[in-house]
Design a protein that fits this description.
The complex is a heterodimer. Chain A is mainly β. In chain A, 0% of the residues lie in helices and 47% in strands. In chain A, strands 2, 4, 5, 6, 9, 10 and 11 form a seven-stranded mixed beta sheet that branches. In chain A, strands 1-3-8-7 form a four-stranded antiparallel beta sheet, with no helix packed on it. In chain B, strand 7 and strand 8 form a beta hairpin. Chain B is globular. Classes of the chains: A mainly beta, B mainly beta.
């Protein structure tokens, strides 16, 4: 697509529920990143994909968080047993091949998650 | 631990003023430094800096990097209300992986 698309734009859920957040990167971009941004904070790294594989998942806060990118394009961030502290804006970004030197991230508009 | 620190955290100015936003960093394997503007939604790219002392300029915005002292500044001249936003600084690192470390941002408000 022309830009990075994220759905849903807003998600309200109850504590303990499961949520999925979807990211459709720019066509041809092989690098994909998930960040989490809490109010008044900068984006916090969660996970980075190069192609289909998670090259670095060191930012995932615990095992309730998981992300996949099965065909090297669309990615889904999955959060199990949501907690109130998971409330944040989840940003997805993509860039061309990581070793291409063109390493500017293009962000989507984010998915705002509210856990009641 | 890799870290990026921005200052000030917030700033209120009047239209026409000039502002300077600061970004300092301590990281391993620095690759580049990027500035983004964030209004209500997605951060939008402003500048990417890789070499010391070379100013990047776009209209009223300019930025420069000092790799010896490990900081960058973003200048905005003749500010307008449309410049009101959060300005984010990010450092691209390659220490065994590739990721971008962001600062907390500077919230700029420009009053008419």
């Amino acid at each position: 697509g022309a830009g990075v698309s994220q759905t849903p734009s807003n998600k309200v859920t109850e504590k303990g529920k499961y949520v999925e957040l979807r990211c459709d990167p720019i066509s041809g971009h092989t690098a994909l990143y998930w960040y989490r941004q809490s109010l008044g904070q900068g984006p916090e790294f969660l996970i980075y994909f190069q192609g289909t594989g998670a090259a670095d998942d060191s930012g995932l806060p615990n095992d309730r968080f998981f992300a996949v990118r099965p065909e090297g394009s669309v990615s889904t961030l999955k959060i199990q047993r949501t907690e109130r502290g998971d409330s944040a804006v989840y940003l997805c970004a993509s860039s061309p091949r990581r070793d291409s030197g063109a390493n500017v991230l293009t962000f989507g508009a984010g998915s705002r998650l509210t856990v009641l | 631990e890799d870290k990026v620190v921005q200052s000030p955290l917030s700033l209120v100015v009047h239209e026409g003023d000039t502002v300077t936003l600061n970004c300092s960093y301590e990281v391993t394997n620095f690759r580049s430094l990027l500035w983004y503007k964030q209004e209500k939604k997605a951060p939008t790219f402003l500048f990417m800096l890789t070499s010391s002392g070379i100013e990047k300029k776009s209209g009223r915005l300019s930025s420069i990097l000092d790799k010896k002292e490990l900081f960058s500044i973003l200048n905005i001249t003749a500010t307008q209300t449309g410049d009101s936003a959060i300005y984010l600084c990010a450092v691209d690192i390659t220490s065994g992986t590739y990721k971008y470390i962001f600062g907390t941002g500077t919230r700029l408000k420009v009053l008419a």
